[in-house]
Amino acid sequence: MAGTVGGRTLAVPPRGTRPTSERVREAIFSRLEHLDVLEGARVLDLYAGSGALGLEAASRGATEVVLVDSSRRAADVARKNVAALGMGRTVRVVADAAERFAAQAGGGPWDLVLLDPPYDLTDAQLATVLESLAAPGVLGADAVVVVERSTRSPEPGWPAGLAAFARKDYGETAVHYAEPADPGA
């Protein structure tokens, strides 16, 4: 971890998650800082696992972070990490399916949405979540959506309302960046 809690180690669920490597996490947050997205941001971390990405956002200036994971075990680990880092006033953990949470608009508008789903998540399942995020009022005008996938997976199927603006590969990991777009464009 970097930011205000730099050097701290997080607990990880015993199985069922694939934590983002430190190298990839640092690259993502370097880009997000360059884009000036983090300071004061409302952040949604879907498929949160241990909460590492959302907690990193909180440590770098986000004012509200919601960690969502369907696994109760992962949500419990994320809660322990939130407590251990003293971030309970900024970070909330929700045990729910990303698809369901995103479909309910989940309290937007969000400035940053982080998606690090399991590599075996189908393209159709990811497309459903992205479609929900592209709905009116879910994202702020200058929001950034970050999707982490395997380099063997195709680029996410971006729905109308989201436009890809970058992709960066790190070994087996591909990081895709998108922003709100005029659905009629």
Q: Could you explain the architecture of this structure?
A:
This protein has five helices and seven strands, in the order αβαβαβαβαβββ. The longest helix is centred in the first third of the chain and has 13 residues, at about 20-35. It has a single domain, classed as Vaccinia Virus protein VP39 (Rossmann fold, 3-Layer(aba) Sandwich), CATH 3.40.50. The chain has about 180 residues and is of the alpha/beta class. The relative contact order is 0.16. It is globular, with a radius of gyration of 15 Å. Strand 4 (about 110-115), helix 5 and strand 5 (about 140-150) form a beta-alpha-beta unit.
Query: What sequence of helices (H) and strands (E) makes up the elements?
Result: HEHEHEHEHEEE
Helix content: 25-40%
Total separate domains:
1
Give the oligomeric state of the chains in this entry, treating copies of one chain as homo and distinct chains as hetero: single chain
Which key terms come to mind for this protein?
alpha/beta, Rossmann fold, seven-stranded mixed beta sheet, 5 helices, 28% strand, SAM-dependent_MTases_sf
Offer a quick outline of the entry.
The protein has 185 residues and is an alpha/beta fold. It has helices at residues 22-34, 52-59, 72-84, 98-103, 123-133, and strands at 42-46, 64-69, 91-95, 110-115, 139-150, 162-170, 173-180. It has a 7-stranded mixed beta sheet.
